[in-house]
């Protein structure tokens, strides 16, 4: 069975980004995929310390919950991330998580032994949700996602920006956006299966 790795970095359980992520993932499950959801806010992780130890072998020496994440990304078949906007970009939980892939940067560029080879043709999708209508905020987050995906050898297959949703449960009042997330999940999985 194929696995979709889903990252939910919001601290709000049942919040807007997690709700949309789950709709996206429900489509994958309906197509016979299994979903592994990581609540990034629950991980006990330290920010990258720029110690450069990973330059030796591509492995991070910080022994925390990230050590359980790296193998999950290696063995998954596709990736979806849904972040809330905070202060104009992705939230800090997700950025901290992404910075811990500096070891994958070393593995790819310095050691030329990426953990996910480019030929694997892995794909990823990005969803973000903000309270304000300004689309620059989601674009800021997307720029970071593009750098991250490039580093981990995932191709950005698509993205969805949801703007104007603030209170907990706001997206649930809007069946149109839930359907949009489900449809995006369906199309994403179809694209991944096509190769
Ligand atoms: C610390 C913090 C900062 C925020 N900053 C922004 C912002 O700069 N722009 C914006 O559009 N929304 C901002 N928001 C609102 C959230 O993006 C919005 O409530 C979103 O729906 C939260 O998604 P969630 O329910 O998945 O956590 C902020 C929320 C928090 C808690």
Description:
The protein is of the alpha/beta class and 195 residues long. It is built from seven helices and six strands; from the N terminus they run βαβααββααβαβα. Strands 1, 2, 3, 4, 5 and 6 form a six-stranded mixed sheet that branches. β3 (78-86) and β4 (89-90) form a beta hairpin. α1 packs across α7 (175-194). The protein is globular. The model has no long low-confidence stretch (mean pLDDT 98). The chain binds flavin mononucleotide. The site of flavin mononucleotide has 19 residues, from α1, β3 and β5.
Corresponding CATH architecture: 3-Layer(aba) Sandwich
How many helices?
7
Q: Identify the CATH homologous superfamily.
A: Flavodoxin domain
Mean pLDDT: 98
CATH class: Alpha Beta
Low-confidence stretches are none
Biggest beta sheet attributes: 6 strands, mixed
* Number of separate domains: 1
Unique ligands? flavin mononucleotide
* Inertia-based shape: globular
Radius of gyration: 16 Å
SSE ordering:
EHEHHEEHHEHEH
Structural class: alpha/beta
How far from one another are the termini? 16 Å
Share of β-strand residues: 15-25%
**Could you give the count of β-strands?**
6
Bin the helical content.
40-55%
Looking at the structure, the CATH topology is Rossmann fold
């Amino acid at each position: 069975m194929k696995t979709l790795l889903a990252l939910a970095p919001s601290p709000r359980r049942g919040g807007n980004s997690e709700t949309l992520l789950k709709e996206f993932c429900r489509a994958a499950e309906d197509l016979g995929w299994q979903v592994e959801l990581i609540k990034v806010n629950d991980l006990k992780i330290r920010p990258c310390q720029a110690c450069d130890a990973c330059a030796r072998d591509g492995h991070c020496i910080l022994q925390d919950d990230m050590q359980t994440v790296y193998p999950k990304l290696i063995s998954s078949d596709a990736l979806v991330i849904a972040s809330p906007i905070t202060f104009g970009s992705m939230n800090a939980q997700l950025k901290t998580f992404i910075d811990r892939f500096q070891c994958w940067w070393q593995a790819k560029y310095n050691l030329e032994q990426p953990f996910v080879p480019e030929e694997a043709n892995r794909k990823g999708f990005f969803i973000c949700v903000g309270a304000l209508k300004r689309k620059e905020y989601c674009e800021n987050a997307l720029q970071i996602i593009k750098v991250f995906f490039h580093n981990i050898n995932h191709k950005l297959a698509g993205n969805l920006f949801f703007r104007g949703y603030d209170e907990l449960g706001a997206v649930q009042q809007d069946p149109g956006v839930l359907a949009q997330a489900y449809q995006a999940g369906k199309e994403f999985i179809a694209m991944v299966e096509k190769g």
